[in-house]
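In response to the reviewer comment on reproducibility (Comment 2.3), we provide here a single inverse folding case reported in full, input and output, so that an independent group could reproduce the run without further information from us. The structure tokens appear first.
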């Protein structure tokens, strides 16, 4: 290194004693090579000495926020250590006494940063992120935490990899900056000093210790917005809505402009909660308050004709549902995606299996309906199915028997509402049995009688107390997906249907919350 502590003390005192204006002082500090310091400037030597003493332990950042007080030197040390792409200056709007207005002081910092570039201590492309007013870089702020917090929310809402250096600020500025860092998960940095000159009561720059302060908000996972995002992405809309309702008032107090965006997010959560529980009509009505957005296909196409529950009764039940191939396709697709979420997000394997059993019955009845070619019989059969449905094991048995050339529905697949003597015979011609689409799957239902095994397990789960492991639920879902794809004659991945929510980031943008949440929370 070629110099020691005594050399640094001597040059530092000499620097303090010089009668400089601020620009000249900073230029000397950054640029003037000192023979006694091995032809390094005082700033360079200070940082080298501190690094050798292992008192600098940070990694670079993209955006560095500086709370600007009356001593620029620690800020320049921080800039050299973090080597940011962007620098954000927060200054006291009341000015800096002998140095003049806040903008005047800010321009001294800008000039010093140019010296750092010329000296090769920072990146050449480092620039200031501030108000687009000539000669006024940075952001003037009132001397209170709430305004500091609000300014940072507005300025940094699109910035990533942020470090906030709280070294130079007054206590009120530090409080606001610290709150924002906790809220946004930003790193918090501070330049401390180990040695002070007893006469001048000034810290020696070479004794600097630059490090980051732990963020308890991040450390203890207290970021409520992160929880809201996770709940939303796991389709736990009610829980997300309840949590957001709890934090709404505190957010409104700190950032009043968030009130309307939060209200709109809550409306979206209510909409998605209705959709996720199958209330397509209710979701369609809720969507009227939300403007244009990509909705689940089932809500768009089934919402106006779906049933609704009033008290203990179903009302507005869809008519001739099993004969409407598009409605069946929309409903089954939506349900299969919901079953996947029950497995992935809820670990509710019993519900997933039972729900798969219900969807399987809908597909099988739709298959049977498609085989009825007589128009009069077709309409009669649909009317009967609006009231009751047949036992699915008999549907499977009739459709899979190779010796059957025709099915007499009243005799082969009787059900309540269609088994009386005066009910007409509905004859279905069978050119060939249904394809054994469940066979050869690498799961528990892949053998010849896989369909029977599926129905047996589903019935036992519906009426007994058995627990369901995940692999059973996964196999049940694969079984029904295979049924659906065989029925349609195409893979689910080829269907241009939507059964997902908007991405959280898109929802924040639609509701206007992207202006207040940092990138890691949206």
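Designed residues, in position order:
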């Amino acid at each position: 290194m070629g110099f020691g502590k005594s050399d640094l003390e001597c040059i530092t005192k000499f620097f303090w004693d010089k009668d400089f204006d601020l620009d000249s002082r900073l230029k000397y500090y950054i640029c003037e090579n000192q023979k006694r310091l091995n032809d390094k400037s005082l700033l360079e030597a200070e940082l080298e000495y501190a690094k050798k003493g292992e008192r600098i332990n940070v990694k670079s950042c993209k955006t560095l926020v500086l709370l600007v007080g009356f001593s620029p030197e620690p800020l320049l040390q921080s800039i050299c250590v973090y080597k940011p792409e962007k620098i954000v200056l927060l200054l006291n709007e009341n000015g800096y006494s002998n140095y003049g207005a806040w903008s005047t002081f800010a321009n001294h910092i800008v000039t010093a940063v140019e010296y750092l570039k010329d000296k090769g201590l920072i990146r050449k492309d480092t620039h200031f992120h501030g108000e687009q007013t000539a000669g006024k870089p940075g952001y003037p702020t009132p001397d209170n935490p709430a305004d500091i917090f609000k300014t940072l929310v507005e300025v940094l809402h699109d910035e990533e990899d942020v470090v906030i250096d709280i070294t130079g600020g007054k206590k009120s500025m530090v409080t606001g900056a610290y709150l924002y860092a906790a809220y946004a998960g930003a790193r918090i940095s501070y330049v401390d000093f180990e040695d002070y000159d007893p006469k001048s009561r000034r810290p020696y720059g070479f004794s600097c210790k630059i490090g980051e302060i732990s963020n308890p908000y991040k450390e203890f996972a207290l970021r409520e917005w992160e929880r809201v995002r996770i709940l939303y992405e796991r389709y736990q809309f009610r829980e997300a809505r309840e949590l957001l309702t709890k934090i709404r008032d505190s957010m409104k107090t700190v950032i009043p402009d968030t009130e309307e965006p939060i209200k709109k997010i809550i409306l979206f959560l209510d909409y998605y909660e209705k959709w996720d529980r199958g209330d397509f009509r209710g979701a369609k009505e809720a969507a009227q308050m939300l403007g244009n957005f990509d909705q689940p296909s089932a809500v768009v196409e089934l919402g106006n004709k779906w049933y609704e529950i009033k008290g203990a009764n179903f009302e507005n039940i869809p008519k001739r549902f099993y004969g409407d191939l598009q409605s069946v396709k929309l409903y089954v697709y939506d349900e299969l995606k919901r079953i996947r979420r029950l497995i992935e997000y809820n670990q509710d394997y019993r519900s997933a299996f039972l729900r798969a059993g219900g969807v399987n019955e809908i597909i099988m009845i739709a298959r049977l309906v498609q085989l009825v070619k007589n128009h009069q019989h077709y309409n009669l059969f649909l009317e009967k199915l609006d009231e009751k449905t047949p036992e699915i094991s008999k549907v499977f048995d009739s459709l899979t028997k190779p010796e059957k050339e025709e099915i007499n529905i009243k005799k082969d697949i009787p059900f309540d509402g269609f088994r009386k003597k005066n009910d007409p015979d509905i004859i279905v011609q069978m050119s060939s049995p249904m394809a054994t689409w469940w066979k050869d799957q690498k799961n528990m239902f892949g053998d010849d009688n896989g369909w029977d095994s599926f129905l047996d397990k589903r019935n036992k789960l519906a009426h007994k107390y058995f627990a369901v492991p995940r692999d059973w639920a996964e196999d049940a879902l694969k079984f029904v997906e295979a049924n659906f794809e065989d029925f349609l004659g195409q893979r689910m991945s080829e269907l241009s249907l939507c059964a997902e929510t908007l991405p959280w980031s898109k929802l924040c943008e639609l509701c206007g919350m992207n202006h207040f949440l940092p990138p890691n929370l949206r």
